[in-house]
Structure to design on (153 residues):
């Protein structure tokens, strides 16, 4: 989860990234860093799974990811939880890298001044990130193109 502050108001983004192609498969945006926000993005991510998929879900040690409702949702869908070590940002390198790119690239063309400007900018960025933004880790492909090539192979 990451936090934005615009016009004296905070906005939180809770994305779920698939490490296969680094695509954002689900996300929730809200006014607080609540358990409900993380549960919402996890529920959305679960809808993208195919029969029999039981992914490893990696997170930091935030209270949201230690909450009983988070763990019960994972268990109900046969998912395994993996938490980063306390104080080690390297364990969350992929999501931290995404947050860094998001924040630097979204504010390149000017800083949104209200949440009404910020929320659509985040949504547009995530769509662009998944469909058009090239990734060196994916050999110059976007996540959508990388997955499409992998499925053909």
């Amino acid at each position: 989860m990451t936090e934005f502050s615009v016009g004296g108001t905070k906005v939180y983004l809770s994305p779920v990234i698939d490490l296969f192609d680094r695509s954002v498969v689900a996300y929730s945006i809200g006014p607080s860093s609540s358990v409900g926000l993380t549960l919402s993005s996890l529920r959305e991510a679960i809808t993208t799974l195919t029969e029999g998929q039981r992914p490893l879900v990696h997170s930091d040690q935030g209270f949201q990811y230690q909450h009983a409702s988070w763990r019960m949702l994972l268990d109900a869908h046969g998912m395994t939880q993996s938490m980063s070590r306390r104080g080690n940002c390297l364990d969350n390198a992929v999501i931290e890298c995404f947050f860094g790119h998001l924040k630097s690239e979204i504010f390149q063309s000017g800083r949104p001044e209200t949440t009404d400007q910020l929320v659509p900018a985040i949504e547009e960025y995530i769509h662009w990130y998944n469909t058009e933004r090239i990734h060196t880790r994916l050999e110059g492909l976007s996540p959508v193109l990388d997955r499409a090539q992998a499925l053909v192979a």
Q: What stands out?
A: The first helix runs from residue 35 to 46. Helices lie at 35-46, 63-66, 68-76, 93-106, 115-131, 143-152.
